[in-house]
UniProtKB/TrEMBL annotation:
Designated name of the protein: Class F sortase
Signal peptide annotation: 1-23
Keywords: Signal
Residue stretches of biased makeup (Low complexity): 37-54
Chain spans, region Disordered: 31-74
CDD domains assigned: Sortase_F
SUPFAM superfamilies on file: Sortase
UniProt key word Nucleotide-binding: no
Source superkingdom: Bacteria
Amino acid sequence: MSGRVRIAAAVVGALACAAVALALWLSAGDESAPDTGPDAGEAPSAAPASATSSPQPPTPTDGPDDRCRAIGPFPPERIVVPGVLEAEVVPVPRDDRGVTGVLPLSDKERFAWDMPPSVQPGERRGNVLLNTHTWADGSAAGNRLLDGLDVGDRIILTGSGQRQCYDVDQRMEVEASAKLPAYYEDDGPHRVAIIVCSGERTGPGEWSHRTIWFARAVA
């Protein structure tokens, strides 16, 4: 992928961390991983698709990975990590500067999806980009991923009557200032990439690391 990513971070108070805010600048080959995330105040109380001989579109059929392969791109509505979490996925547009949005800081359960023209589940190439909040009190979706999502685990995205499964093949933690071009890949193998704040909270809006999961689409 060509492109230059510049990160925008917000500081809003004391406890929660929003995973990512990204500004994309088209240029030659330099991309930055998210550097800081905002804090909030005190936490509020399938088998392969088959086609008949008719000209109708193919539909999923039963098999070893029943309904795990989408028949085409779709907007994700829910994410399931078996044994870890199930949550709503919300499309978030970029602002006029190209900065990727995040959900309200009080929204510790849902995931933000970098909506089109970014990659959708079921496409043939590129990363579906998701982020969610991590809270310092350990109660947010990001915390559950940090505790329970590892290499070999499955991620399932559903929406519009479709379903695409992904198997985690890489989990990595990088310093907040690290560059990570692979996260923003839009022309490599189809994957989902999830990023959350991690490490130590060193001050309001300041976390030492980012954890990123890459999961390859079940083909």
